[in-house]
Design a protein that fits this description.
- By secondary structure, the chain is of the alpha/beta class.
- It folds into two domains: about 5-145 and about 265-290, Rossmann fold, CATH 3.40.50.2300; about 145-265 and about 300-325, Rossmann fold.
- The protein is built from 14 helices and twelve strands.
- The strands form two sheets. Strands 7-6-8-9-10-11-12 form a seven-stranded mixed beta sheet, sandwiched between helices. A five-stranded parallel beta sheet has the order 2-1-3-4-5, sandwiched between helices.
- Helix 11 links the parallel strand 9 (about 245-250) and strand 10 (about 260-265).
- Helix 3 runs parallel beside helix 12.
- The longest helix has 16 residues, at about 265-280.
- The protein starts with a helix and ends with a strand.
- About 50% of the residues are buried.
Amino acid sequence: MKRRTFVKLLGGTVLAGAPLVARAQQTMPVVGFLDSGTPAGMDANLAGFHRGLGEAGFTEGKNVAIEYRWAQGHYNQLPALAAELARLPVAVIAATRSATPALAAKAATQTIPVVFQTGSDPVKDGLVASLNRPGGNVTGVTRQTVEMTPKRLGLIYELAPKATAIALLVNPNGLQAATQMQDMQDAVRARGWTLHVAKTRSAGELDAAFATIVQSGAAMLIEGNDPLFIDQRKRIVALTMQHKIPTIFFERESVVAGGLMSYAASFADSFRQVGVYVGRILKGAKPADLPVLQPTKFDLVINLKTAKALGLEIPDRLMALADEVLE
């Protein structure tokens, strides 16, 4: 295996990354890439990030080097990984997929620019002072994924309007778990339904989580927003099909992988926007002057082949709302 690939995969190892930075700093700027999950399922998102860098005039290995750090789902490792990137040092830190890596990066440095990509409200999370005027050394992109959880409830309701119980899959270790559970509880209570929260902290707990969903009698499932669920995308889709649970996901890629439906802003495009911001900062822009970017479009994606396998007929009203239908 080539050393460069080895470094990318190891991610959190200091000894593997330091020599590359020492060489790269002699000729090109170095970007730190901090993520709470693993590289699994991230191909499209990483491609988006590199596309954004390209739009800003930067290509990895040509005029910019990237140091990757993956926490492998161990959120408690993020502060150390962020501190490591700050010590190298890097010119910019891209902290992706949730607010947790961004908060770790913000705590690690007050001088190195940080560009986040998160699904929650960065003001409530304490990342920025405001969306239009971030202030300090932090800015980025929010997909507003967490805020869309109740909206997903309304969409999947169209498939089973007589249902009285619904399940929510969450990672209780995630920073946004409490908000997602409360928002869903409020939305479900308003409809007079019952909510079952299935919690999974790791891939090893997924089978048990789905067993509790089946036992609860929930007619539908909403997948909460968490990097773990991207890492375990194929496994989760397979479990929804195995147990025949109609599910709405928080990313399009899960529907492409065989899931039933999703409602979300484009993950890959938000990564592209992070790449663009990183490139602009490398050219001299200051994070405080770059407003937090928000999605302008959310897409409803439906997989008709999956619906047929689940014995479901997608209502005409839902089909009319769909932005993309996979057959």
